[in-house]
Amino acid sequence: MKSQEIISKLPYSKPFLFVDEIIHIDENGVEGSFTFDENLDFYKGHFEHNPVTPGVILTETMAQIGLVCLGIFILDNNFNKNTSIALTSVNMEFIKPVFPNEKVTVFSEKIYFRFGKLKCKVSMKNENSVVVCTGEIAGMVV
Predict the structure, then answer these.
(1) Is 49 annotated as catalytic?
(2) Residue 2 scores a pLDDT above 90
(3) DSSP assignment of 35-102, as one string?
(4) pLDDT digits (tens, 9 = 90+) for 8-32
(5) How far is Cα 107 from Cα 60, in angstroms, rounded to an integer?
(6) Measured distance CA(38)–CA(122) in Å, rounded
(7) Is the CB of residue 13 less than 8 Å from the CB of residue 64?
(8) Which residue in the list 9, 46, 119, 121 is annotated as catalytic?
(9) Which one of 5, 65, 102, 106 counts the least CB within 10 Å of its CB?
(10) 26-55 average pLDDT score
(11) Got the DSSP string for 89-117?
(12) How far apart are CA 115 and CA 113, in angstroms?
């Protein structure tokens, strides 16, 4: 399955789509990127006069790239419009802020996929290859 085909199957649309590109994907993990446009609505209030990307949005970006894109790839032809991946657990550590117009890259490594549950070790780096957050994320295929 090609990268654009995977992105087209994501159950999100702008302004809640946080995947620009899948750089690499195989059955063991995925690497993808997203650039946080300065005009995204949440920057207006988080924080006033010093906008920073909220941790929940960073988590969502890692979930979309590191869990959902990988889940679609693993399921391949078994993934259809009636399939979805629901987030079940997250354990994140936020290390550095992500500012408007920053491009980030998400790296995800599959820990396991069994009984419909996918669990991954994820990290996010900025354009300077500095880790901005890291953790584990899991979801169920429903």
Answers:
(1) no
(2) no
(3) E--TT-GGGGTSSTTS----HHHHHHHHHIIIIIIHHHHHHGGG--TT--EEEEEEEEEE-S---TT-
(4) 999 899 999 999 999 999 999 999 9
(5) 14
(6) 24
(7) no
(8) 46
(9) 5
(10) 95
(11) EEEEEE-S---TT-EEEEEEEEEEEETTE
(12) 7
- Core vs surface per residue 77-93: b (16+ CB within 10 A) or e: eebeeeeebeeeebebe
User: What's the rounded Cα separation, in Å, for the pair 117 and 110?
Assistant: 11
**Please, what is the end-to-end C-alpha distance for the chain in angstroms?**
21
Q: What confidence tens digit (pLDDT) does each residue in 86-97 have?
A: 899 999 999 999
In sign, the C-alpha dihedral spanning 52, 34, 106, 80 is positive
3-class SS at 33? Answer: strand
- Cβ neighbours of residue 107 under 8 Å, at least 6 residues apart? 29, 30, 31, 66, 122, 123, 124, 125
| 63, amino acid identity | A
Q: Which residues contact 72 (CB under 8 A, 6 or more apart)?
A: 1, 6, 9, 10, 79
Torsion of the alpha carbons at 11, 35, 121 and 24, rounded to the nearest 10: 80
Confidence label for 84 from pLDDT (cuts 50, 70 and 90): confident
